Amino acid sequence: MRSRGDMITGYLFVMPVVVSLAVFLIGPIFYAFYISFHEFSFLAPDQAKWIGLDNYVKLFQDPRFLKALKNTSFYSLGVVPVQICIALMLALIVDSKIKGKTFFRVVYFLPTVTSTVAVSVMFMYLFKSDGIVNLFLSHLGLPTHDWFGSIKFALPATMMMAIWTTVGQFMVIYLAGLQDIPTDLYEAAEVDGASPWQKFRFVTWPMLRPTTFFVLIMSIIGTFQVFDQVYVISKGEGGPQDATLTVVFYLYRTAFKDFDMGYASAMAFVLFLIILVLTFIQKKFFKEETA
Q: Any transmembrane segments, and where (predicted)?
């Protein structure tokens, strides 16, 4: 049996982590949930007023929040499927027997480890009125746009940037999934005369379902939490005319510019519930697919 001294030693080793989680994660979560039922500002915390569910009711009557939720949903619907398709395609390429595949792996992954601010500034130069993108379009005889200054094109241009910066991360995850597939399955498929497409359809894709589920959930969470790219591109305004306003960006403005922490906390928990529901829906869908 373990001695009391061993148990105390174990608890002492675990205690710093438990205390850190309690102070910096669990405690703030419960406190944020508490103040979401209050009219609360850190400028005057002693004047906090209990208002019940008013903050939550107000959210769905707030046109700016509804606009932010619409923008975020559109952003997610546009980015997630494209991210997954390109990441899988790149993973298949760098997992094949091509020369210099290590080089291509590094090149594809490089945008992921590049500063988001630096990438945002780079794309602002690429997509400005006299930038490379418009120069290329004009040479093709296609119409040019003021991409980030346009209500219609600001969000799609941001989506293109997000895909470019994050697809390498999911490529690496898919690559790990591909390398975990037993080679015996491919050998058996070749014996049966399967074509490359049939091997992908009946071997690769079914074996990648757990990986795809993980990538999908991570991608959805990432797109619903988008903030830094939008902040840099819109110069902290979410414009033009709220065209790039997202839920997290609106939450930030509400909390740290309007100092309405109660309303911002309610917004955070609504976003959490949306992501949680989407995760459970995807989990149920993938379970039915594999059943």
A: 12-34, 74-94, 106-127, 147-176, 207-227, 261-281
